[in-house]
Design a protein that fits this description.
Elements (H helix, E strand, L loop, with lengths): L2 H9 L2 H30 L1 H6 L5 H6 L30 E8 L9 H4 L3 H4 L24 E4 L15 E7 L2 E3 L2 E5 L3 E5 L6 E5 L7 E5 L4 E4 L8 E4 L7 E7 L4 E3 L5 E4 L5 E9 L3 E2 L9 E6 L3 E9 L15
């Protein structure tokens, strides 16, 4: 620095020097920014001319929403209508089936067939027929409730691969009523000390009738069936169970208290089927042929208490006497 410049700096107010330095830095910043903007316009003149100006802070706070669907340049996505209106992980249909009368007395197996204990000594002395189970609070067990609509959406990639196990407990097939997705495997085990056979007639699948030796098992996969099907044992004819095979997971059976829950339903109006082994389609005044339509909304959809009159679930002729 020469002497004149030194004398000028010495006589200058420090505040003025700071303001001067700030102005010089700002001018340099504007020059650099202008050159970068010009280069971007030359590289992509169309985007620069038509793209709206967005502040850097807005880009960070409002990123574009991601989508798994292909882009269609502003046109409506043709697959959008196939998707459910909302996520399905919180939507369920619940209810409780109640017997509107005095709970019917279940018949003892030994009273129907005296030779039962001779055939299967492990059968409990008080074993009873499981065709209609009503608890002390009048709840009806083993009522099937499922979506009947053919267009109900579901993610096949998330279909259950679990094994559904059937075994013998207290001289009966257990569970008595079960559901099975076509993606699952049916596993039948013989836990008795005597052979059993497992027989069923289907509407869609091929009929089966196979013998399972002591300690043996049988595994199979099945196609969806329109209604529950009956599995029985010809050696011990009181042993039977019911199974509904569907492709979708929107199905349930009522528990010992009569309660049921269908989980993860997509929103929208769907047709449901109600079915019980004694009568088939469980028809009521409000549900012709045991069917009803319901508009599923987000959250819990409660049908409340569903009272079933004795005549509506009355057994078919001699059904309770076949054993």
């Amino acid at each position: 620095m020469d002497r004149n410049a030194y004398r000028l700096a010495a006589r200058t107010n420090p505040g003025d020097l700071l303001r001067l330095a700030t102005a010089i830095a700002l001018a340099l910043s504007l020059i650099v920014s202008s050159r970068a903007s010009t280069a971007a316009e030359v590289k992509n003149p169309v985007a620069s001319a038509h793209s709206p100006a967005v502040a850097p802070s807005e880009k960070a706070e409002n990123p574009p929403e991601k989508t798994d669907e292909p882009q269609t340049d502003g046109q409506a996505n043709p697959k959008a209508a196939e998707r459910p209106a909302a996520k399905t992980n919180s939507n369920c249909l619940v209810g409780r089936f109640v017997y509107d009368g005095d709970p019917p007395e279940r018949k003892k197996i030994s009273a129907v067939r005296e030779a039962a204990h001779a055939l299967l000594p492990s059968l409990p002395a008080d074993a009873r027929i499981e065709t209609l189970l009503v608890d002390k609070n009048k709840g009806i067990a083993n009522v099937f409730v499922y979506v009947r609509s053919k267009d109900v959406p579901f993610d096949k990639t998330k279909a259950s691969k679990d094994t559904v196990r059937v075994h013998v407990a207290d001289g009966q097939f257990s569970p008595h009523a079960m559901t099975l997705q076509s993606s699952q495997t049916l596993h039948v085990e013989n836990t008795l000390k005597k052979p059993i056979n497992f027989r069923s007639r289907f509407w869609v699948n091929e009929n089966v009738n196979f013998l399972i030796i002591v300690g043996g098992e049988h595994r199979t996969q099945l196609k969806p069936e329109p209604i529950p099907v009956r599995y029985s044992c010809d050696i011990y004819p009181w042993m039977h169970c019911w199974m509904l095979v569907t492709d979708h997971p929107y199905v349930a059976t009522s528990d010992a208290s009569g309660d049921f829950t269908i989980r993860d339903l997509p929103q929208g109006e769907w047709e449901f089927q109600v079915w019980h082994e004694q009568v088939g389609n469980l028809t009521t005044k409000a549900w012709p042929k045991g069917r009803f339509k319901f508009d599923v909304r987000e959250g819990t959809n409660d049908l409340g208490t569903i009272e079933i009159e004795p005549d509506q679930i009355k057994a078919r002729a001699k059904l309770d006497e076949e054993f």
